[in-house]
Amino acid sequence: MLPDAEPPRKLENLERSAPKDKAVGTKAVTNSLKHVNHQAGPTRGAQALYRMNQKGGFDCPSCAWPDPDGERSRFEFCENGAKAIATESTKKRIRPEFFAKHSVAELAEQTDFWLNDAGRIATPMVLEKDGTHYQPISWDDAVALIAEELNATESPDEGIFYTSGRASNEAAFLYQLFVRQYGTNNLPDCSNMCHESSGAALKQTVGIGKGTVTLEDIETTDCLLVIGQNPGTNHPRMLTSMEQTVLKGGKIVSVNPLLETGLKAFSHPQKVSGILGRATPLASLHLPVRLNGDLPFLKGMLKCVLEAEAAAPGTVVDQDFIQTHTHGYDAFVSELADAQWSDLVEQSGLTEAQIRQAATVFIEAKEAITCWAMGLTQHHNAVETIREVVNLHLITGKIGRARSGLCPVRGHSNVQGDRTMGIWEKMPEAFLAALDKEFEFTSPRTHGYDTCEAIRAMHAGKARVFIGLGGNFLSASPDTHYTAAAMRRCQLTVHISTKLNRGHLVTGERALILPCLGRTETDHQKSGPQFVTVENSMGVVHSSEGRLEPASPDLLSETAIICRIAKATLGKQSTAPWQLFEDNYEHIRNSIEKVIPGFEDYNQRAKIPGGFYLPNAVKQRIFQTASGKAEMTINPLNPIQLEDDQLLLQTFRSHDQFNTTIYGTNDRYRGIKNERRVIFMNPEDMQARGIVAEQPVDITSHFEGETRTAELFLAIPYDTPKGCAAAYYPEANVLVPIAAQAAHSGTPTSKSVIVTVAAHS
Ligand SMILES: Nc1nc2c(c(=O)[nH]1)N[C@H]1C(S)=C(S)[C@@H](COP(=O)(O)OP(=O)(O)OC[C@H]3O[C@@H](n4cnc5c(=O)[nH]c(N)nc54)[C@H](O)[C@@H]3O)O[C@H]1N2
Ligand SMILES: Nc1nc2c(c(=O)[nH]1)N[C@H]1C(S)=C(S)[C@@H](COP(=O)(O)OP(=O)(O)OC[C@H]3O[C@@H](n4cnc5c(=O)[nH]c(N)nc54)[C@H](O)[C@@H]3O)O[C@H]1N2
Ligand SMILES: [Mo]
Prior knowledge:
By secondary structure, the protein is α/β, with parallel strands linked by helices.
């Protein structure tokens, strides 16, 4: 049996140094240029970097952090954006000879780094039943094979149609249209594992599942609360904004079990001061909260707010706002009174003084913004915790006005746009009705499978065909061995991809790799050159147009691939003009405009340099909830109970990776080099288990009486609260139980896995 994940190998190359004190600086720029030159060569590389995030250029395929509305620096990119470009614009190619030389079994023994480094996939490939090697296949035959399998299912619900967050608005809109015309809502996406908890909490409480602030708000606010997010590594361009916040007199409070380098200080790589090594201190207050300790921390903050209001009535709680715009205030206040400081302190791992200090900054700030990411969303009570963030902003009225509000910082560059376009297993009736009207058909109304449900359905043999529009479903999903078994039970697994990944190696009976154009490349269709559009974390929709020559003449755009699959599968029964859509993307945008509110004059406005903002009612203090008001919610404490020898493990990202794509093995800011199988532990926890620094250990996770083990990790003493540990994703995904999901959002609880750690046996 082939390995489901990167096999552990000898652990002998680890180089360890102290965590860094400041982020970026010249090192990051030289590092990024080195990567680009090495992969793409100086000409192709420079050409790509020059166009990135410029008005009229292409959107950085790395994270979803927005670009400035006004003037832009010539170098609107970060180290990680440059690495994403380098990996996409690499000169290396995977051609049929590569697959003839390496069997699937051989490839499965390689590291994830090696697989990605092999180059861009240049031609469509098929793995036949019982085949040992992928073989070339024509586009027509590949598309016919998909149509044949999809039309052979007993029910459309046997198809699973996954999307990763890099797909453009155009591709995403056509994909969901195809899937709904085929007859199912099985549209799981990476968001299910990412910000689903934010969407669920925000939709219920403020009426829109998106953030409510602009980049300018962030840069001019008085208080930026950054909870459960590591911007230095995952959203490096946010550091530029955070530097502005501080320079303009705002305060940054970091709430994180780890004092991440990017939150300590920033030295701007494109300014003289930064090049000279001078750094701007960022967070003036750091609260080392215990993993999953944020709900009690927030309750402590809210108690301080009520106390301050009692001491000086009418100055802290925004009674006007509460009266006019909210629902549930009295019930909220009476429940909060029951929360005891002793419990809040114990469960958050913070002292009362630390919580009070943070509360003082928040209360004294005229305006405040809370940013968060995976540190809040991937817990069993993630939705409750995010609703408590909302409570904090509602009670103080710090929402829906300039410089105040909520900022879930998105991951993938177009994950927010994909949702707007209808990539969701449970789109609301209004969207489906508009889609039906535009295309004269009836979309299914039964909700589809989300990511975990899709895995369970494949595992149970209830779903037989998997198609992935980008991404690496196998390695990104929880419970790797369970997910691998699920994929192997399919009749057909299809990946629309740019680079090779493990998902191509753990397959159904038959498998296809369909190679597509990347963001950096030109996209020519019958009507001429095309651009696509994307939406960033702050609801700005703008165009993205690549300028590099495609990696291979055999590549198709994602949009073209979807049109061809749809045409072949649906045949004459489809009411959508697939050929027109493929020939000219303006037709797609015309349909989007008719189906989705906020896209009036889409084709015209997409051409506005810098793009346009989608409407966001919260900014006008209009809350489109069931009650028509912002909902204050009651979120009971519900701490994870650990046994004596157990720890909570978070699975997080290193510096040199983008999700499952491993660019290198240097987690520079944390001082860990050449080894990814590491577990960061509190030194006292190590001592209590008789484990010494860099000792090989095995990690076992515990859930509802089941255990899962990941062997051979090196223990690293690190400044993390007692009882908490951390290991990299995707290596640690074998430990994340498929059934451990957040209430209300279904997100895997990848930031609080209950584990025991023992010497390697
Ligand atoms: N270079 C690069 N950029 C990326 C990505 C990448 O892999 N590489 N991925 C993209 C994607 S899809 C996403 S979603 C984002 C992810 O961006 P992040 O959410 O920053 O990513 P993680 O590494 O998962 O980091 C989670 C952070 O939360 C902290 N944390 C963990 N648990 C808790 C908790 O219980 N409470 C609190 N307060 N903090 C906690 C961790 O210590 C860590 O600092 O980044 C995007 N950008
Ligand atoms: N344990 C644990 N698990 C997690 C997380 C965690 O924090 N801990 N984080 C979760 C999160 S936040 C997310 S978003 C998911 C990410 O899950 P995914 O989005 O599924 O995974 P990626 O690693 O981003 O996908 C990488 C692959 O996308 C393909 N690709 C790259 N660019 C393009 C393109 O332009 N077009 C196409 N078609 N394909 C392209 C390449 O083939 C590449 O190998 O993982 C989740 N899983
Ligand atoms: Mo994500």
